Amino acid sequence: MFKIDNHNLFEELGLPKLVELSTAFYTRVYADEDPWFRNMFPDDMDSAIQNQYEFFAQRLGGPQIYSARKGHPALRARHASFPITKRAAERWLEHMNAALDEVGIAGIQKEALLEFFTDTAFFLQNLDDSNQRIY
Ligand code: HEM
Fold it and tell me: What's the confidence (pLDDT) of residue 28?
């Protein structure tokens, strides 16, 4: 149970705000100066944005639009081929934190989203500090 499950953030924020958030986030990711991070992401930024905001919409209490198009999110399986170290999880969270600020998501909404994102980012870590696979 996360704080995001105490509200319907999809209704509070609306789909256009989630599109804005994912666009702001991925614009930062694709502009990241460090190739070890940026090069994990496929060339198609538009698809990455759509995958993310559709997932957020359904996870935050909206219609199941991600699953209707792609099936179960299965986040661990879908991230298994990317080298996700602790440093990568932290970088992802830095970009997301900045994107939340950029689109004006603040207060309890930001706090709840960051709790969910932080927990999920470290759950997706699949390499330890010596680059050994964790799962
Ligand atoms: C820990 C750091 C993370 C890294 C390095 C990472 C990396 C990636 C990459 C490279 C993709 C492929 C882009 C695409 O084509 O869609 C992706 C997709 C995705 N990520 Fe992450 N991610 C991270 C954390 C997260 C977190 C915290 C969430 C959710 C809260 C998340 C949700 C997703 C979703 C829903 C997709 C689309 C999957 C698909 O449809 O194939 N990711 N991620």
Answer: 98
